[in-house]
Model the fold of this input.
Amino acid sequence: MRITTTVNGTEREVDDVWAGESLLYVLRERLGLPGAKNACEQGECGSCTVYLDGEPVCACLVAAGQANGRQVTTVEGLAEGERLHPVQEAFLETGAVQCGFCTPGLVVAAHDLLQRVSRPSDLEIREALAGNLCRCTGYEKILDAVRLAADRQAQG
Amino acid sequence: MDFLQPASWQEALELRAARPDAVPLAGGTDVMVELNFDRRRPGALLDLGRVPELRTWRTEDGCVRLGAGVPYARVIDELGKQLPGLAMAARTVGSPQIRIRGTVGGNLGSSSPAGDAHPPLLAAGAVVQAASAARGIREIPVAEFFTGVKRNALAPDELIGAVRVPVATGPQQFSKIGTRNAMVIAVSAFACALHPDRRAVGTGIGSVAPTPRRAADAEAFLAGELESAGLWESRGELPETLARAFAVRVAAAASPIDDVRGTAAYRLHSLSVMARRAVTWAWNDLREAA
Ligand SMILES: Cc1cc2nc3c(=O)[nH]c(=O)nc-3n(C[C@H](O)[C@H](O)[C@H](O)COP(=O)(O)OP(=O)(O)OC[C@H]3O[C@@H](n4cnc5c(N)ncnc54)[C@H](O)[C@@H]3O)c2cc1C
Ligand code: FES
Ligand code: FES
Done:
């Protein structure tokens, strides 16, 4: 089947999509957007988190056909050209990135949190990132990154 | 494999009848895992995500008619007052990403003994509205809906349209034991609802039997004891001995197994501890409300 989806602001058409294919597969293998990662394919790790119509979802659990006619934003769509998004900057500065495999999903989840809550408490940060696993950092630096991004966002 | 995407409820029911080989798809949080791991290769997916009626809820005759496609995130945001037990259970499901996609209808469709929506639906006395193109709507009390491990009373040509849940008339509680706070399948779960208007108690137990079920003896026992002690009227303190005796009867309704998530003995123990605590919390809430 053919699906037409707006990805990072641009309408993309994809042909010969298999009915059981995931949105994650379409993004990575057909559209050349390897930002969202494929680690578990069962919703457990959050490394494939993308926005679907403005909501953070696991792309591995969305059937490609369900994204037909919808808006998808991936981690590639957060930066403005060469300028990283403040959440991305904060991850780099605080050392929240080690192997980097979890980073794209965490950046999208943190970006979503800071859009909804400008000054999240630690509990709110933990809750918002509960669906994203990181095997390297121990999460402390990730919490630092979100706090830093929130501070900067609050200062405008 | 075909991808069927009806735009209306009528069309969905017709496709369901015409394609017995199709698997309905709501939030995909169960179905997509099975597809990704090659555990299932249906002839078609029947995506219900474009059927607007399924994504709405409304109040009618003292019940919330909750469309099968309303995701947990919206149950939490919009129904905490009317359906507190279900909203509490919804808060414990998976992660934010899972709660945004996963639906109560999908939980019922999977009919897992560990499904978190089931205990509060049982405690509230909810009714599943199944529908088919040929026979229209059929109402199935949720206590009769689960027929075996991951099996339910739906006919092959039926879809779940909605679940009718009585609006809470008293406090409700939900408790779940797992290995950590986020992203856990319940090792055991307990829900209770106090119905002071008809002086009744509702319960639901999860992950401790082949299906989610009520602890009917425990319900009748507690309601009767509260009655004979005049507690429904006085709203006096719930005696600890009564809470314990209730918990023993809740555990007696279970028939758990040992598995990777926990032993049968641990399930029984944790269930009775949760029952005692949750019913005490609910009763204290009722006293405070008085
Ligand atoms: C990482 C992760 C964590 C999870 N954590 C929990 C948890 O904590 N607690 C919990 O209870 N569950 C949990 N689940 C399981 C799952 O999220 C729930 O069962 C959810 O309610 C399924 O809803 P869905 O809309 O995604 O269903 P889908 O996957 O779309 O469908 C599930 C089943 O229901 C059928 N179905 C769907 N809609 C209908 C309908 N209208 N009529 C008839 N049949 C229908 C489908 O054919 C399928 O058999 C988790 C899953 C994942 C991946
Ligand atoms: S790859 Fe999607 S959640 Fe892990
Ligand atoms: S940085 Fe390696 S998994 Fe998070």
